TrEMBL record:
Residues of the Aminotransferase class I/classII large domain: 30-385
Catalytic EC class: transferase
An example molecular function term from Gene Ontology annotations: pyridoxal phosphate binding
Family under the similarity heading: Belongs to the class-I pyridoxal-phosphate-dependent aminotransferase family.
Record-given protein name: Aminotransferase
Organism the protein comes from: Anaeromicrobium sediminis
């Protein structure tokens, strides 16, 4: 009955964990949830007020398939000011979240048989999105000593005549690593030479603890031509449920993405778009407070992790995750195909802490924790992990 596409999809480990956590909480258990990939900050007041005002003024009808012109202009202004990239309104397509923006891009670019390079560790949905849109995901292994950031040497081993697209996530989910300008330049120059498009997922770019964040499309006009920048408001402005993402790319591709979106969903929620205009133009102080808070939590978390024997991690310079190497526990845990899944199950059942197993990101020796929670909850959860390890 089901299509081959539906049969070929791997269930989301993160959704499975979330479901189990909800069930345990309903049973009255005290669970600390480090698995969630969602800001614990509410949508800023000015953005909420703009959404309410749009309803009261009846801005609730169909609009342009690619998004409201006012919002697309606000995105252009943001990219010019913060990312040093010049786009026109007709090169921006607003979508129902960054996931939707990525799917739109893949539908517009990928034919059956095309290969899409997704460096490990990767965000859990990338491979499934590629398979759903007819592509073949290819997984280069990156090195921990390079903070799991892709190099040309890693990349060139996997490039073939079928390679169409490369994913670069910056800052990284799950590791929080941030590429330097020089690291990106070498990758971009190679992709220009090999005629490979780059999908630059920069959804976490405003949650960055270094001053030298570089957007790939800002490197040169040639870089801009082959890059599809993916961004949105879920992470940077705490607007996960509003579902607003966008692509910024060359005019030909943007036109195709807009046409696809017009047939599939028409356009994102009009109310969300009006709130998004305010989020991009009036909420800088809210974003700064959020990022400063995350940075303080990160510092607290890594100090405690450093005190636990046998653990190591990639120093997170962005996002709100820590990717922790747990391989020192392998001889203490019984497991089948996946060590990290068995470990995560035991941490939840015995330690009452929910984490995401590294297998979800293609790296089975690791777990991912999120510090999108209060400092008190963060410290309590890490203490539980520490106690669990000591009792093994």
């Amino acid at each position: 009955m089901l299509s081959k596409k539906a049969q070929n999809i791997t269930p989301s480990l993160t959704l499975g964990i979330s479901t189990k956590v909800r069930e345990l909480v309903k049973e009255g258990l005290d669970i600390i949830n480090f698995s969630i990939g969602e800001p614990d900050f509410h949508t800023p007041t000015k953005a909420k007020e703009a959404g309410i005002k749009s309803i009261e003024e009846n801005h609730t009808r169909y609009g342009p398939a690619s998004g409201l012109v006012e919002l697309r202009q606000a995105i252009c202004n943001k990219l010019q000011k913060e990312n040093h990239i010049s786009y026109n309104v007709d090169e921006i397509v607003v979508s129902s979240g960054a996931k939707h923006a990525i799917t739109n891009t893949l539908m517009a670019l990928i034919d059956p048989g095309d290969e899409v390079i997704i460096p490990k560790p990767y965000w859990v949905s990338y491979p499934e999105m590629v398979k759903l849109t007819g592509g073949t995901p290819i997984f280069p292994t990156t090195k921990k000593e390079n903070e799991f950031k892709l190099t040309v040497e890693d990349l060139e081993k996997y490039v073939t005549s079928k390679t169409k697209l490369l994913f670069i996530t910056n800052p990284s989910n799950p590791s929080g690593a941030v590429y330097t300008k020089e690291e990106l330049e070498s990758i971009v120059n190679y992709c220009i030479e090999k005629n490979i498009f780059i999908l630059a997922d920069e959804i976490y770019e405003r949650i960055c603890y270094v001053d030298n964040f570089t957007s790939i499309a800002s490197l040169s006009e040639k870089a801009k031509e082959i890059t599809i920048t993916i961004n949105g408001l879920s992470k940077s402005v705490g607007m996960t449920g509003w579902r607003l993402g966008y692509t910024a790319c060359n005019k030909t591709l943007a036109k195709a993405i807009g046409a696809l979106q017009g047939h599939l969903v028409s356009h994102p929620s009009a109310v969300s778009q009006h709130a998004g205009i305010s989020a991009l133009t009036q909420c800088d102080e809210d974003i700064k407070l959020m990022v400063d808070t995350y940075k303080k939590r990160r510092d607290v978390a890594i100090e405690l992790i450093d005190s636990i024997d046998g653990l190591s991690y990639v120093n997170p310079e962005g996002a709100f995750y820590i990717f922790i190497n747990m391989s020192s526990l392998k001889d203490k845990i019984s497991y089948g195909d996946h060590f990290s899944i068995a470990l995560a199950d035991r941490l939840l059942d015995e330690g009452k802490v929910a984490v995401v197993p590294g297998a979800a990101f293609g790296m089975d020796d690791y777990i991912r924790i999120s510090y999108a929670c209060s400092t008190e909850v963060l410290l309590e959860g890490l203490e539980r992990i520490k106690n669990f390890i000591e009792e093994l």
